Structures are given as C-alpha cells and as structure tokens.
UniProtKB/TrEMBL annotation:
InterPro entries: D-iso_2-hydroxyacid_DH_PdxB, D-isomer_2_OHA_DH_cat_dom, D-isomer_DH_CS, D-isomer_DH_NAD-bd, NAD(P)-bd_dom_sf. This is Glycerate dehydrogenase. SUPFAM superfamilies: Formate/glycerate dehydrogenase catalytic domain-like (SSF52283), NAD(P)-binding Rossmann-fold domains (SSF51735). Pfam families: 2-Hacid_dh (PF00389), 2-Hacid_dh_C (PF02826). Transmembrane segments: none annotated. Belongs to the D-isomer specific 2-hydroxyacid dehydrogenase family. Keywords: NAD, Oxidoreductase. It comes from Veronia nyctiphanis. It is an enzyme of class 1 (oxidoreductase). Residues 107-287 form the D-isomer specific 2-hydroxyacid dehydrogenase NAD-binding domain. GO terms for molecular function: (S)-2-hydroxyglutarate dehydrogenase activity; hydroxypyruvate reductase (NADH) activity; NAD binding; phosphoglycerate dehydrogenase activity.
C-alpha cells in the first residue's frame, strides 16, 4: 500500500479533479504546508506530490520511506535534484501541459503593454478624458505587434508555443543562444544580439544557478528603449530592483511579470511596491492556469504515479 501525500493541494483549484492512480494507496491532501510541517507530514509517505513546497537536502535526508517525488509542475527548482540523484530518489515532473495557456498569457501581456491598455484605463479613471475634450486622446504610444521582433529565451515546449503564436501575428522570432556561450547553434541568435534587436523579450528557461539574474542591469541596458520584457518563467530570472530602475529611467518601455522572487509577494518586493506603474503588468503566477492546462496537469500527476509503480516511469528528471 502506497502512502501518497500532496503537500499543497490548494495550488490547484478545487474544481480540477486529480484522477485516482490505479495503484493500492492511501491519499492525504493538505491545502498548504509550512516548511516546519513538511517532515512530520511526510514521515510515512512513500510518494510526495509538491507543486511549490521546498524539498531540500535537509528535509529529504529525514525521509527514508520516500520512493518517489512527483512535482506537480514543470519547474522543479523547489526540489534539491542533485541530492535526489546522489541518493537514487526518483523525481518526475509535468511536461508540455500549458502549451496554450502560458503562450496565450505572454501574448496577452505583450498586446496590452504595446498598446498601453492599462495606462489608458488609469487615465480614464483619473478623468484625463474630460481635460482633453475630444472624442479620443493620446497620452501613451500605441505600437503594432505585426512586423516587430520577439526574442525568446528557452526553446522548450513553452518557448516554442510562444514562437507559434508570435509568428501567427506577424512577428519575427529570434531564439536566444545561451548567455555566455562561445558558439551559436543553427536556428539561434547570440544572447546579446537578441537583447539588442528584439522589440520584446520573453523568458522560458528554468531557474538554475546558471540562469539566476539572467536579466539584470547590463542586459536591460542592451535592450531598446521601446522594448518590453515578459517573464512567465521563474522569479529569480530577473533582477527585480534593476528592472524597476530600468522602467523608471525609460531604458525599456514596459514589463509583464507573472513570477516573483518570493511567492506570495508582498510590498517588500520591488515589483509589488511599484504595481501602480502604468507600464508594469503583474499577475500572481497564473500563466499556467487555464482550466484545460490545469486538468492536463492533474491527469499527468496521476499518470506519473501509476506509471512509476507499473515499472515504466514517466518524465523522470
Ligand atoms: N508561469 C507559469 O505559469 C509557468 C512557468 N513555467 C516555467 O517555464 C519553464 C519552461 O517550461 P517548458 O518550456 O515547459 O520547459 P522545457 O523543459 O520544455 O524547456 C526549457 C528550455 O529551457 C532551455 N534552457 C535551459 N537552460 C537554459 C539557459 N541557461 N538558457 C537558455 N535556455 C535554457 C532548455 O534547453 C529547454 O529547451 C519551466 O522551467 C518553469 O520554470 C512552466 C509552466 C508554467
Ligand atoms: O509548471 C510550472 O512550472 C509552474 O510554475 C506552475 O506551477
């Protein structure tokens, strides 16, 4: 009998059903789990499901019963994967489930920022229209997306999904070669060239030691003043203080951020503290959140458990 524990079930809306895996099991779900509660809740677990609860080496070393970690997400930066490899603890994740949801979120942010929709809404709230006394008014630039260039960092399922949508709306697509790479693969453009040529840059690579603060002062300075930065990858890919400074100095035109260095984020976070800026769109890590994506993810959670115990593991990391 497997003892399956889902540590943060409330990260998935209640109307999404997680199918019961076809393996003899007991299932325990917790809405959320504090770091101090993890070990106690997993003491008898053989399978742990975590979306964002951190499983570090210190915690994992206290859980000898564990046979499998199922990350209920694509990004697995909350799990000490090196420790798991060294200790032969299998970890699997969810793949290719949000290939509509995340790209659509990115393109929605892009249109909104390029057309300054939030800025116009704020101006109407602030009664600017009455002052202008015309049927329309132009207080912010409105750009076309068609004919512009998007730079995509990360060419996996989501980077490719964004490229498909971007091409369909007339954008030129540049995939960035890895930062610091001495060679440039066919089909890729050097990292710095992408930053300096793109009208919009979007991030779809994992958060690792290599990608932490991938976009900071120097990278923002390379971008065009009319450029837009979108991050629906992971908080930590962007230096948030540097981004706010770049927006304030007009080094870039706008930013759409779905992910934050700390989640939940509060007013101590530079992005949240500047949420009133008209050229900054913030969403609370929901790019993945269309109902169809959530259901695909929930199905894969169950499939991953079932496949593992059938001896044909899926999506092992
Ligand atoms: N905001 C949201 O709701 C969601 C965010 N994500 C994030 O998006 C990331 C990407 O997801 P997928 O495309 O499905 O993953 P994927 O594994 O299909 O693709 C990731 C790509 O990034 C590339 N990569 C790795 N290191 C890189 C580096 N240093 N520079 C450039 N590229 C690098 C890999 O080679 C791979 O092509 C996830 O790791 C996760 O952190 C994923 C789903 C939802
Ligand atoms: O799948 C992911 O990586 C997400 O961030 C959604 O939880």
């Amino acid at each position: 009998m497997e003892h399956i524990v889902f540590l943060d079930r409330d990260t998935i809306p209640a109307h999404i059903t997680i199918p019961s895996p076809d393996v003899a099991h007991q299932w325990q779900s917790y809405p959320a789990t504090e770091p101090s509660e993890v070990v106690e809740r997993l003491r008898e677990a053989t399978v742990v499901i975590t979306n964002k609860v951190v499983l570090n080496a210190h915690i994992l070393a206290q859980l000898p019963e564990l046979k499998l970690i199922v990350v209920a997400a694509t990004g697995y930066n909350n799990v000490d994967i090196d420790w798991c490899h060294e200790n032969q603890l299998p970890v699997c994740n969810i793949r290719g489930y949000a290939t509509r949801s995340v790209p659509e979120h990115v393109i929605a942010m892009l249109f909104s920022l390029r057309r300054n929709l939030v800025a116009y809404q704020r101006d109407i709230q602030n009664d600017i229209w009455r002052e202008k006394n015309q049927f329309c008014f132009f207080t912010h630039p409105i750009g076309d997306i068609a004919g512009s260039t998007i730079g995509i960092i990360g060419s996996g399922s989501l980077g490719q999904g964004v490229a498909t949508l971007a091409k369909a709306i007339g954008m030129k697509v540049l995939f960035a070669e890895r930062k610091g790479s001495k060679v440039c693969r066919e089909g890729y453009t050097p990292f710095e060239t992408v930053l300096s040529q793109a009208d919009a840059v979007t991030l779809h690579c994992p958060l690792t030691d290599e990608t932490e603060n991938l976009i900071s002062d120097n990278e923002l300075k390379l971008m065009k003043p009319e450029s837009i930065l979108i991050n629906a990858g992971r908080g930590g890919l962007v230096d948030e203080k540097a981004l706010i400074l770049a927006l304030k100095k007009g080094e870039i035109a706008g930013a759409g951020m779905d992910v934050f260095t700390e989640e939940p984020a509060d007013y101590s976070n530079p992005l949240v503290a500047n949420a009133g800026m008209p050229n900054l769109i913030l969403t609370p890590h929901v790019a993945w959140g269309s109902d169809s994506s959530l259901q695909t993810l929930a199905n894969q959670v169950s499939d991953n458990i079932q496949a593992f115990f059938a001896g044909k593991p899926n999506n092992l990391l």
